[in-house]
Amino acid sequence: MSVSISTHVLDTAAGRPAAGVTVELLCGPTRVTSAATDADGRARLGEALEPGVYTLAFHPPSPFFRRVQLDVVLESGHYHVPLLVSPFSCASYRGS
Fold first, then answer.
1. Is the pTM here over 0.85, yes or no?
2. CATH number for position 67
């Protein structure tokens, strides 16, 4: 079974994608990879991963949220996990 994951970071206060946001993908304490979001706020973080529990760690452009961490279970197929962030809130969901 092959697993892949991507993300999209949106700055909801500015109403646009958040470019240059560092996103780390970890499996346990081990960093699998890290990437910065592109001009459209998107980043691909892994292809051909093993199924398991992974952590996405975002470092968003927010004066309050310095690090947003999500633990996700990846079983098979492609996962897209967006982050919506503003100076006052953040939210995530499983995208398509």
1. yes
2. 2.60.40.180
